[in-house]
C-alpha cells in the first residue's frame, strides 16, 4: 500500500527540497538560475508553487505555474495560465499527484481570469508529451529555435 501524500502550498522551509527536485528536472540549467526561479515565484502574485509531501514531510513533487501576459502560442486570450514546471519523484508517479497539481493550477488560473492553461516541453521528450496529453493538453505547434553568431 502506498503511503499518503499531502498537497500544499510551497513555503520557504521546503526551499532546499524543491530546489533539489528542480535540478533533477532542469539538470542542464545553471544552479543560480534555478534558485532564482523558486525565489522569484515564491515572491510573486503571478506565480504558484504547489508541493507534494510524503508521510515523512519530505517533498516528493512540485508544480510551478504562472500567469503569462505575453503571447502564449495558440491561446485564445491573455492572460493565460502556464505550467512552467512539474516533477514527481519516480517512486510516486502514476498515483494522480500530477493530475491533482494540474487541477489546483487550473482553479488558481481561473481565479486570475484565465480561460486556458499553456505549457511546453522539448520536442524529443516523449514522456512529458505523453503526460501533457494524458492530463488534457493538446499539442498546439512544434517549434525549433535557431541561433546564429554574428560577431
Would you kindly provide a written description of the structure presented here, covering whatever features stand out?
This protein is α+β, with helices and mostly antiparallel strands and 151 residues long. The chain has a single domain, classed as 3-Layer(aba) Sandwich (Aminopeptidase), CATH 3.40.630.30. 31% of the residues lie in helices and 22% in strands. The chain is built from four helices and five strands. Strands 1-2-3-4-5 form a five-stranded mixed β-sheet, with helices on both faces. Helix 3 links the parallel strand 4 and strand 5. Helix 1 crosses helix 2. The chain is globular.
**Spatial sequence of strands, sheet with the most strands:** 1-2-3-4-5
The share of residues in helices is: 25-40%
CATH superfamily: Gcn5-related N-acetyltransferase (GNAT)
Succession of helices and strands:
EHHEEEHEH
Distance between the termini: 60 Å
CATH topology: Aminopeptidase
Name the average pLDDT. 91
- Total number of distinct structural domains: 1
Q: What is the number of E strands?
A: 5
CATH class: Alpha Beta
Strand residues, percent: 15-25%
Global Rg = 16 Å
